Amino acid sequence: MKRLTLHLSAIAIIWSMVALPAHAGVERGHSSGVKRGVVKKPVAKANVVRKRAVAQVATPRQLSFGQLAGLHGASDALALRSSVALVVDQDTKEVLFSKNESAVLPIASITKLMTGLLVSEARLSMDEMITISQEDVDTEKGSSSRLRVGTELTRGELLHLALMASENRAAHALGRTYPGGMATFVGLMNARARMLGMNDTRYVEPTGLSSRNQSSARDLATLVNFAYGDPVLRELSTSTGYQVEVGHRTLQYNNTNRLVKNPAWDIGLQKTGYISEAGQCLVMQAKVAGRKLIMVFLDSAGKLSRIADAERVKRWIESNPASLTRATPLAAREPEHRVAVNRNY
Fold this sequence. Notes:
This protein is an alpha+beta fold. The chain has one domain: 3-Layer(aba) Sandwich (Beta-lactamase). The protein is built from 11 helices and 13 strands. It has helices at about 10-20, 45-60, 65-70, 110-120, 155-165, 170-175, 180-195, 215-225, 230-235, 305-320, 330, and strands spanning about 5, 80-90, 95-100, 105, 130, 150-155, 215, 240-245, 250-255, 265-275, 280-290, 290-300, 340. The protein has a 5-stranded antiparallel sheet with strand order 3-2-12-11-10, with helices on both faces. Strands 1-13 form a two-stranded parallel ribbon. It has a two-stranded antiparallel sheet with strand order 4-7. The model is unreliable at about 1-10, about 15-40, about 325-330 and about 330-345 (pLDDT under 50).
């Protein structure tokens, strides 16, 4: 079997070339009133159309690391849109489905599952007030947040928002205020991963906004299996909605995974994630056809595709509940690409 070895540094260079900001190549105009006695020359429609066409050419679709690596070229029997997928029976450890499960890719906000695990295991006071600071503002991707600088919430509220609604400032504040500070927290994230045998995993910050937070489907299945044993993580990650009082305002947050509201699903733990480099990601522990399963979907194309992939797997298992064993072709089939990423930080 051909082993495809990718250098992360090369991928990052290529990605930076194609991942131009939305305004790249477009000049920002300035409107002004028409003064009496001054005649302005009309702008020809052709020029406007031409500028728009140039702007569209200058802003190509941002490709994920998996797309750049050619992982989406791998076919599978379920026609999943995720380039990486793994389904494991939680009790028997049988691999029921696998696709590029050894690929090491950015994991986006799946990172927050490890963040939540450390905070929960530390047994810190969940009633302690934490203030969102300027340090918690995203300078990596420039993402927005409804938690303004100066907002005060309890550690428990921040943990809830991080796990359920994937709130980046909440997750960052949890790491920043951990005893010893952010450097200690990130060090513990990596140490915990090593202890769990997650040898493909590397963390550099607690939110997942950095593409240098990376893992494989096999490692993430290990994390989901372990995190499922924590009742706090189970409860908060599967909460359908949550309100927090911020000054005179009440902010309503909803779960980023619509399946938690679907009565057809019995989900015990979940986390979603997305950044351009990672694509759409989803990990879950769920009971399907009487079996406790761990599902991992990484680098999925399209907003709803990770959900559709989970639904495909669910229908497949429900239609073949008794015949799914190690001998099942879908389980035994080797992925077309086994990717080892050489990470040079």
